[in-house]
Every structure is written in structure tokens, then in C-alpha cells.
Amino acid sequence: MQKFPMTAEGLARLEEELRQLKTVERPAIIRAIAEARSHGDLSENAEYHAARERQSFIEGRVAELESIIAAAEVIDISKLSGNQVAFGAKVTLVDEDTEEERTYQIVGAHEADIKKGLLSISSPVARAILGKKKGDVVEVPAPGGPKQYEITQVAFG
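That's the Transcription elongation factor GreA sequence above. Prediction below.
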């Protein structure tokens, strides 16, 4: 079984989503299906079909989350240190063209959320900066042509 690196916080978020789906969403959709069934002819009952679709989505997500959680390899980032970019590091990058500065934390693929600054370890940017140090300039392939970033800070914890 393939293991997925993950932070403890990322695992906790996935476990909370799973708990929410099992204890809140599942029972609610079962009630909605029962209610829709009580309205009679199911072949033309849009409410019933929508509830069944939602149930299918929920069950699929529950199975996906259970599989991810079972394969999670939690890495305690509080024990990590150093000056090279690695899993769990918070890295500040400056775009060489625009001088725009952004800070990301390198996390597992299943917990990535770019809006929250959580960058997947398998993303092109993360792959380009892994193993690099403060002051290094990296080139990242992008749809509009390669972009260059300078690493201005690497921190753990």
C-alpha cells in the first residue's frame, strides 16, 4: 500500500471531514431520501434523484477519505529543522519578475490548499524548491513560460 506523507493538522482535518460526513451528512441524506420516497412516483421525482445523487457523492467521499487516512504517514514537523527546503518547511518565495512575495508550507498532496498557503509536495513549485536553501533562485515551468523565484526564507515549526 502506498503511503502518503501528511502533517498531523492535515490528518485531523480529513478525520473531521469524515466524522462530519458519517454523523451529520449521511443521516440527513437518508431522511431526505425517505421524505422524497413518501411523495410517490420515483421516476419523475427530482427531489428523490437529487438526494440519491448526493448520497452517492457522500459515500464516494467517505470511501476516499477512509482510504487516504489508512495510508497516511504522519510526519511530525515539530521535530524537523535545517536550512534546506523539505516536507513541512515554510518557504517564502519572491517572484523575480513581479517582486511578489508569497509564503507556503510544503504539505502532503491530500491536504494541500493553495488559498491557505499549503503547497502540495508533488506540485511543480514544491518539486523545484525541495533541497534548495535561502538565497537560491529556482526556475519553475509554467503555462506562460518558465518563472523564476528566489527563496528568501526557510523555516520549520
